[in-house]
Write a structure and sequence with these properties.
103 residues; mainly alpha
Length: 103
Amino acid sequence: MLPHALDPPPQGDAGHTAALVIAKVAAIEVPRSEWPELIGALLANMAASPSTKELRQSTLEALGYTCEVGAGRRQGGHWAARAQPWPTACLAGARISHAYAMR
């Protein structure tokens, strides 16, 4: 549900706010294995067709914020064990975004 909130109207900061909320919720749920579909949902947002610039930007923010939150919690074994795919997802999201920019 939350990844769908990343596609905001063109004005406003709803996408930015949704990205922050996703990162905060992920910080709690990822270590507990309660949100296993999050990375897939975010990458699907990046590759969606049609997709908007705002959706891709907000999704990249969500990926980045989640990586930042996870980096601060990696001392705990639970996050480290569950967060290994996040850096790869951030890179994949950036590559998809770059491909759209090249069109």
